[in-house]
Structures are given as C-alpha cells and as structure tokens.
UniProtKB/TrEMBL annotation:
Biological process terms in GO annotation: protein desumoylation; proteolysis
Keywords assigned: Hydrolase, Protease, Thiol protease
Signal peptide: none
SUPFAM superfamilies attached to this UniProt entry: Cysteine proteinases
Superkingdom of source: Eukaryota
Source species: Heracleum sosnowskyi
InterPro entries, sorted: Papain-like_cys_pep_sf (IPR038765), Peptidase_C48_C (IPR003653)
Gene Ontology molecular function terms on file: deSUMOylase activity
Entry protein name: Ubiquitin-like protease family profile domain-containing protein
UniProt domain Ubiquitin-like protease family profile: residue ranges: 1-212
Record family assignment: Belongs to the peptidase C48 family.
Source lineage: Eukaryota, Viridiplantae, Streptophyta, Embryophyta, Tracheophyta
PROSITE patterns in alphabetical order: ULP_PROTEASE (PS50600)
Gene3D superfamilies per the UniProt record, alphabetical: Adenoviral Proteinase, Chain A
Cellular component annotations (GO), alphabetically ordered: nucleus
Amino acid sequence: MSLTKEKLLTLKPGNLLEDSIVNAYVEILKIRENNLWYPNHIKTDNPYSFHAVLKPTAKRFFFAFSWWMVIAAQFCYDLKIPPSEMTGAAKDDRDNFIKTYQKQFIGPNLQDCDFAFFPACHCNHWILFVADIKKAKVLLIDPLRNGDDYSGKLIYPTQYYLMEKFLPFMLHKLDDKQFPQRYMIIKEVVERPKQEGGVDCGVFVCKYMDAICNGISLKTAYWTPDKDVITFRYRIANELRNGEARLISEWGIRQKNLGL
C-alpha cells in the first residue's frame, strides 16, 4: 500500500489522519501478527496446519480496512430489513461481498479468527469495532465519546447495524454450524485511553488495535492524550516508512498500576 508524502504529513500533530494512513497501519499490523504465527524460517505449503506447534496460546486476528464498512453499507439501505431478506441483484451483490471480503491477502480468513477489527470513519471521526468471533460479541470503542447520554446505536446507526446483524449473517453464511447465531451483542467500552484533542481519533484507533494485539487490556492501558499521542504520530510515520509495526515492548504503551 503506497503512501504519498502529502498523506504521511497528516501524521503531523494537529491533523486528522487520512483513511489511507489508518489502512496502511492496519496492513502492517496484519503482517506483524501473521509473522508471529508463521515465522519466516518455517517452510510449508500449508502453514495454517502448524497452529498448535507455533503459537498455541496466541489469538488470530482479522483486520478489515475502513472500506469494509463503506462497501458493506450498501446492504443497509433499510436498517429494518434483515440481510437474509434481500432479493434479486441486492442478494447477489451481498453474496459476492461475503465471498470476497471474508478473506485476507495475509492471514487467516474471517471465520478462522478469534477476533476481528473493523475501524470506521464517520463524519471525520474514527471509531473501532472489535468482534469476538467465537462468542458473538462486539466491543464499540469510541475514543472521544461515552457516558450516560451516549448511544453508539444512535450516533453510528449504519455501522452498528453492520456489526449487530450483517456480520453474524455473514459468518452464518460461511459456516452455519459453527456460527448459528444471527445477532451480535454489542457493548460500548467506557474504560480506555480517551481522546481529548479534536483530531487524534485515528491515532487512538491505531493504538487500540496495537495494544489489543499485544494482549494489553484497554482498561489498564495508559498514554497521555497530548505528549504520548504526538510521539505515537511520529512512531506510526516511522513504522509506515519502514513497512514494519514494532512490538509494544519496543515502542511502549504503559499500563496502569491498579494495586492488584
């Protein structure tokens, strides 16, 4: 995924991140996680047969680009109509989407993963959905908003529909025995590093994915919304230039001491 200088410059403090920046970061995270599962020195025509040998306790991740939401949204012209009731050309387009977008160029397919990341940009604001594929649960992580008066379903109705109804339908179509459920339970995350600046949502979404991949709970993850986020911007730029996402141990997301 090539990036122009102009797009990389959106990582400078005070700028909203371009979609291409977030998607490029998704790509290098995907490569990093795949390399952890399948080290380069192991040669095999079917590396997925080595799951238990290489990393038996690891989680497998599916990384969707932001356009997953954009393209899938065409199946949400009426949020009251279940995906299963589509007919004609809409049904054919839906089935083609499922066939195409359940795959990753790098890494396992959607139905073979433990968790799936779905970043989305709504009105210039980045949010993240994290789906627990096996348990049929989804976390909605909004870097900026939360509280008693917050409703992700009202603010992001299309994205919410896609996670609540379309994603489980997609999994059911791929393997109805493994995924009998027709709905996902969505929970809005409250305890997480919270955005304060008006333009840093994309950075937060990138680092949420980074932390989760490394087994760090967002409840205990910690970074300052000013100084650390500026550092993250330059680190992300460096990682994108090098084409490699570094591990947390080297790039440092701190964790709160909860006194446990």
